[in-house]
Amino acid sequence: MNYLTLYNNQTVSVKDIPEHGYDVFLEGNLQLLKNRPERHCVNYFGVKNNREIRIYCCIADDLTHKIYVSSCVLEEGSSIASFTVQNHNFEKFEREIHENFDINFTDHPWLKPYRFANNKYNKDLNVGDYPFYKVESDELHEVGVGPIHAGIIEPGHFRFICNGEQIMHLEIQLGYQHRGIEELFIQKSKLIERVTLVENIAGDTTVGHTTAFSNLYESLCETSTSDALNFSRTLAQELERIAIHTGDLAAICADIAYQLGNAVFGRLRTPIVNFFQEWGGNRLAKGLIRPGKINFPFDEALAKRLLELFKAYESDFNEMVEEFFSLPSVLSRIERTGIVTYDEVLEIGTVGISARMSGLSRDIRLSHPCNLYGNTFIHEPLLKHHGDVFSRVQLRRDEIRQSIEYCKKLLENIPQFHKPENILFVPGEEKFTLSLVEGWRGEICHCAITDGEGNLKTYKIKDPSHHNWMALAQSVRNNEISDFPICNKSFNLSYCGHDL
């Protein structure tokens, strides 16, 4: 089967993407992945044109940096064989295609509603009618949590099937928020409107998603990204990683009732997010990243301030992690809790920490680098192999240290910032662009298709949580239900990143 081969942030002509019959399309993409753990599906989605649905499959090779793109045209309402029955990486992708376009995957093992979006094919489909998995037994009971939670957590429902305190099965049902972000990208034509949308895909990953959009938009406009913009985006991504990982360590401490760790890690997160406020006027970095420009150039005074911040941070951080990892009461709660094996994460298709916790190397900074990641000191991913809460905590600790060292390296050579320039889509043929970024959760993917006038026809967003929710469900099996909060926090997946 023929594929179009492209690289991260490369724009190509839509007409150059090969179109195949479904049987060839199915077999060809499955063969690309067969016994190749270095390859995975980064996006698989449909685009409607009257009653025709053109589906695009994008398979990334993490060793060669290549992305293989192919397509197939189906009739609305078609019944076809699924990818999922042979490769579970496609499970959620196909559920979304089924929900949006009435494509029936006849042998899909779990063909349930995906996100109950406003643009779903069946307008009568209601989130309250979700078909939960059931087990009839006098010895088992169900426990429902959510969708409304205490505090600020977003809506999502967790349905446990338990034998006493032991979890036998967890089903996670999302889709309570109907923001319609992908459709709004088409409706809104102003760049500032689209940037505002992308900053609100997932508030804790503002930098990651906005960087993906900015890189993609510049590629569509045939504009190269300057050293200054690459610098600011790379530095901001690593600062976002440090801040969120630190906050996650605080939350994990809270769930095991380790109050000192919760207080110290929570305090250490604050100066990092406050630095974003000092740099660009917002603690979540909204307004900082923009296509073609930056409104808040980085300078030597900010560099001095950041180095002082790191000096104070590292002293307290190192002391706290030494204490944390030496306490038997802490280790007894996180070691061998919430295990997901290498074979399981490979089958599920996880990304980011949710892959690296079990020895599966998935890191866009290395496999499909952009901005300044192609020439960084990050030469190999940080990997753990036990797939438990302990591994996920260790990775956060190690990635924080790695990111700090990388930021210090970046600050040795601050590029000259120039006056912002407006950039515009270049009219011509229909275009396709794909952008990958390694957010702190893992792989972010944005895809765009334009018409001949340069207008957006399709904007497809994939948050890393798309790949990882099933890993959380798998992690709690055979654990006690009291272990769920610590497992959940150790993944810290996004509800809003799912409910687009």
Features:
single chain; 500 residues; alpha+beta; Beta Polymerase, domain 2; Cytochrome-c3 Hydrogenase, chain B; 2 domains; five-stranded mixed sheet; four-stranded antiparallel sheet; 15 helices; 14 strands
Description:
39% of the residues lie in helices and 17% in strands. The chain has helices spanning 22-33, 91-101, 181-187, 191-199, 206-220, 227-255, 259-280, 300-324, 328-334, 342-348, 353-356, 364-367, 389-410, 465-475, 484-491, and strands at 4-6, 11-13, 19-20, 39-49, 52-61, 67-75, 79-80, 104-105, 141-145, 157-163, 166-173, 431-438, 443-450, 456-462. Strands 1, 3, 4, 5 and 6 form a 5-stranded mixed sheet that branches. Strands 2-12-13-14 form a 4-stranded antiparallel sheet. The two termini are 33 Å apart.
